[in-house]
Input
Amino acid sequence: MPKITAAKTIVTCPGRNFVTLKIETSDGVTGVGDATLNGRELSVKSYLDDHVIPCLIGRDAHRIEDIWQYLYKGAYWRRGPVTMTSIAAVDMALWDIKGKLAGLPVYQLLGGANRSGVMVYGHANGETIDDTITRAGEYLAAGYRAVRLQTGVPGMTGTYGVSKDKFFYEPADADLPTETVWSSERYLPVVPELFAAAREALGWDIHLLHDVHHRLKPIEAARLGKDLEPYRPFWIEDPTPAENQDAFRLIRQHTTTPLAVGEIFNSIWDCKALIENQLIDYIRATVTHAGGITHLRRIAALADLYGVRTGCHGATDLSPVSMAAALHVDLSIPNFGVQEYMRHTAETDAVFPHAYAFADGQLHPGDAPGLGVDIDEAAAAKFPYRRAFLPVARLQDGTMHDW
Ligand code: EZ4
Ligand code: CO
Output
């Protein structure tokens, strides 16, 4: 049996912070898992170094489900982003090892491909509607079949999703949280204008998405959904915070615009009521923050029973290891919807050499054994950790709001 002989965490900042777990086995095979929790990176590193790695040594690397259950039930303190990200990193690394030992890409172990590739959506953003549409046109020309549209709100600096660098959107931008200003009243009329202009300029042969990023009250989100209906958005994402899940019933009663939720969820228990009550259309849980490949598959299987498809989060704060793992899941499940894809910087791609590739609007994980992604430790060492926080948002009168 391939025994786990060693494991370590590697922190690197090739443009942004990433935490990677690397597991070694007695067979000489190694595996990698993404353990990055944006803005709280070192808490996951400590959880792994201090509380998980000592328990892994000597275990059979093939027993993925058993190790998952051991870490989940054995923690006693269940769920939460730090615990579930740590378990996810172990899980990913073990699937990587199993694939390498079998000589197969992970998607083959998960049942094989269900489709030619994984449809991804890119991020088009700009300070103005015209800017945003120009960017979206570039994605279309590059072969994308789906694009997320975000635009500046007049009078508001630092609108979510709008960045100075049009190519790489990076919200964790400062040593202490940047303060941004928000107004739902100003934002609400802008998005339907953006979508009207986008359909006019780009036509109907492209999926258009929008991320509300938890900013609206339920009744405001309902109105936005209604206002966008004529433009047939693929989805609106995180229309309101999801702690109170009944809020989605209210939104649902008012609009047929599809709803996507779950990028900050970390367990099937966060997803269960929304899925079983058919209050959402796409579940956005990620392989990194929701317990790894093993747990994400379970969430996808539950969603499939209710006609809910996946639309996994794929922001730059999820490393190429996470992206690779997500693609293996996406390719192998029946109810895949779409995969978010924010390109990483050239430095990040160099630290994490990977087999996945983009063609015709789709990503494919490639056919390298395992996840098909590695970490170049020498390259990683050149980019030491730099503290970075996500921004916060306040209303114009100073009231703290959801960022
Ligand atoms: O703000 O990943 O859909 N994508 C998003 C992201 C999140 C970041 C937070 O770490 O909402 O841009
Ligand atoms: Co989002």
User: Anything to note?
Assistant: The mean pLDDT is 97. Residues 38, 171, 211, 213, 263, 313, 315, 317, 340, 390 surround EZ4 (ligand 1) (CB under 6 Å).
